[in-house]
Amino acid sequence: MHSSPRPTSPHAQIYRWYLTSALSIAHRITGLLLSLGTLLLGLGLLTIAVGPAAYGHFQAQLLSWYGLCGLLLWTLCLYYHLCNGIRHLFWDAGYGFALHHANASAWAVLAATVVLTTSTWMLA
Fold first, then answer.
1. What phi, psi does 7 have (nearest 5°)?
2. Ordered structural domains, the chain, with CATH
């Protein structure tokens, strides 16, 4: 077997990033972050069961600057994952595979994420 000087797969340093590939990776990451946020929600529900003191401490942490930043990030992940999931449903149905449609829907996902997140936090 001879060795080839060419790489067998694209390397991160030479791979050209596209918006659609970055959004695909972000979809996986937001899914993970949503799962972690759901675990924290479960922890909050457990503090209710423990008693008012435990829930008060949890609520104080949630309303601190880092708690609010975490909630903002979780909201952003939620809306991004939702919008990009809808985009994937259209792909599953066979629509939107043309390059211009894929790019337009990618930008639409990002815009909808920002609008929905901002609207939620402005109304809360």
1. -70, 150
2. 19-123 (1.20.1300.10)
Burial of 91 (0-12, 13-18, 19+ CB in 10 A): middle
**Alpha helix positions (H), 19-98:** 19-50, 52-62, 65-92
Spatial distance between the Cα atoms of 59 and 6, rounded to a whole number of angstroms? 56
pLDDT 10s per residue in the chain (124 long)? 566 666 666 666 677 789 999 999 999 999 999 999 999 999 999 999 999 999 999 999 999 999 999 999 999 999 999 999 999 999 999 999 999 999 999 999 999 999 999 999 999 8
Angle between helices 65-92 and 99-123 (to 10 degrees): 150
60, amino acid identity:
A
DSSP helix/strand/coil, 107? helix
